[in-house]
Each structure stands twice: as structure tokens, then as C-alpha cells.
Amino acid sequence: YRPKQERTQTMKAGISITELAQQIDHQSKTKRDYLADSRKVYMTPDTNKLEIDLTQPGADIQRVEDFNVKPHAGKQIATWAGIPSKYYERMPNDLRAVNVNHWLKNEPGQRMVRTLDGDVRAFMSDSYRPLDNIDLAQAVIPVLMEQPEMRVESCQLTDTRMYIKALFPNIQSDLDPKIGDIVQAGLTIQNSEVGAGALSVDPFAFRLWCLNGCTTNVGQRRRHVGKRQGEIDTAEEFYRDETKAKDDEAFWMRVQDTVRASITEEGFEKIAQRMRDTKEQELGNPIAVCEIAAKRFGLNEAEQGGILQHLVTGGDLSGFGLLNAVTRYSQDVED
Length: 335
What we know:
By secondary structure, the protein is an alpha+beta fold. It has helices at residues 17-30, 71-81, 85-90, 93-106, 133-145, 242-262, 265-278, 286-297, 301-314, 319-330, and strands spanning 31-37, 41-43, 50-53, 64-69, 110-116, 119-125, 151-157, 162-174, 182-191, 199-207, 212-215, 220-222, 235-237. It is built from ten helices and 13 strands. The model is unreliable at 1-9 (pLDDT under 50).
């Protein structure tokens, strides 16, 4: 652990909550979703733009819109077409278009194409269920603001994710009164509108001793999966129907309930007690334990090595030491 005089705030600040709200509002006004038969989608060989033929049956004038393809959407297109992503990225424009267009025409099926500011940001299954950042923000931010001492420690909106980390300093617990090991209540809120992860609301404990946050798995989580849309042989702009809107309304109410329940003293004390219990768990061989943890949580070799380094450096070979090694290593990762 870092000596007290060297400790600084380690959460990644990102942008302010006001900037986040402004960006989300802008995106809500400029994003468009389309349901398209893949045979109505075409990749241009010179620019690798994605064209969507929106001409409706019986129309006199053809309506085609074209969009630049963002890197995340490009990877999704490659995955759908069965093209290795590294090869997809290396191909020149004309060869990439030939490959993609072949499968668009010869493997027909419906796709949801999500666009923003003239770019394709996601190329997804027609069973994808939009749970958008604007709805999440409108559900949780007012609840967070009900807490007088709430402090937003970190928030960001990237091409693939939105996240907010909020602290509630008035709700805290002492893991070890002998040394004054204080943890404060926090909440992590995440979402991806482009298939890069589920929507989740997770309580976490912020340890003042080392300024790391340990997220727990007792929150609200929902994957963006719904029923497939009815078969179409054209392309059209996608609008959620009334039934889905009602279902979403109930879901957002459950999210609000989760947020409120997560920032009570009683709820946080349960999390703190789970952390105390890990102090009694002896690990044994730290190398073997880190290998098991890596398999359990899908960590790569570099992440496994980083956690092992902090575990050994920390000198606490208990479950609590492993927990803190993970949260400490998270501060070394850029993303």
C-alpha cells in the first residue's frame, strides 16, 4: 500500500456530470436506429462507408443514406461475416468491401444498425433491446441528487460505454477499528448502447486506506436482449413499440429502487461485513490463486501478473489481500 503522505485520488475523473448530461442529450437528438434486411446494406469499395437502402415498396424515388463505420461497428461487421478482426483491419478498402458485400447478399438476415452523427456505431442482431443512456441518466441522476453529500468521483462517455462512479461519504464503515480502516459507500453505473456490455448498477466500497474501489455483485443488471422483430425485406427506421416502453418503465423503476437500497447504512454494512470476512480467508500459494482468479474472471496474462505483483507487494496473503490487489491493479490500467 502507498504511504499516507503519498496517497492521491486514484479514480479516473473523466468529465463532469454536467458535461456527461450535455453529451447524452446531444446523442439522444442525433442518433438513429435502423432495422434492415442485410441485402439492403452495401459497403462502398472506395471509402468503406455503409449504405442503407431505405426505399419503401412502391416509392418513385430511391432513398439511400450512407454512414462512416466506427471501429467498434467494424469489428461487429467482421464478427458477423466470420472475418478475423485483424485481417478485416488489414484489408484495403476494395477487398474489405468485396468480402463484406458478399456475405451481406448471400447470408440474408435482419440487422439493427445504430448510427450517431453520420456514423455507424453498431451493427447488431435484430433481437438487440435498446436500453439507452438518456433513459438511464433520467432514472438514476435525480435519485443520486437526493443524497446531500453525494460526490461524483468519475464519469465518462466513450464510443462504447457510459459510466458514473458516485461516492456517499456520510455512509461508511470501519473494517478494522484497531487501525481505522474506513470504507465509504459508492455506486457504479454502466451501460453500453452498442453491445459492449450490459447495463449495470453495482454498489461498491471505497477504501480510504488505499483509495481503491471494490465493486460488489448485488446490484441490478440487464442484458440488451429482446424478442426478434418481425421479418422484413427492406429497411426502416426503428421505433420502440408501446409494450416495450411499458416494460422499460417498470425496469427503470427497479433501477431506481436498487440505487436507493444501495445507499443506505444497513445495505452498505452488509457489504462491509463481506469484506471483513475475507480477512480470515488464507490464500496459500499466491501464484496458483491468481491463476484461478484469472480463469474465474476472464483475465488475460498481463492482468494476472499485475494482480500477483500487487498481492505480493501488499504482503497480505488473504482473501482481503487478493481483493485489494485486484482493485489496486485497476488503477494501473488506462481504460
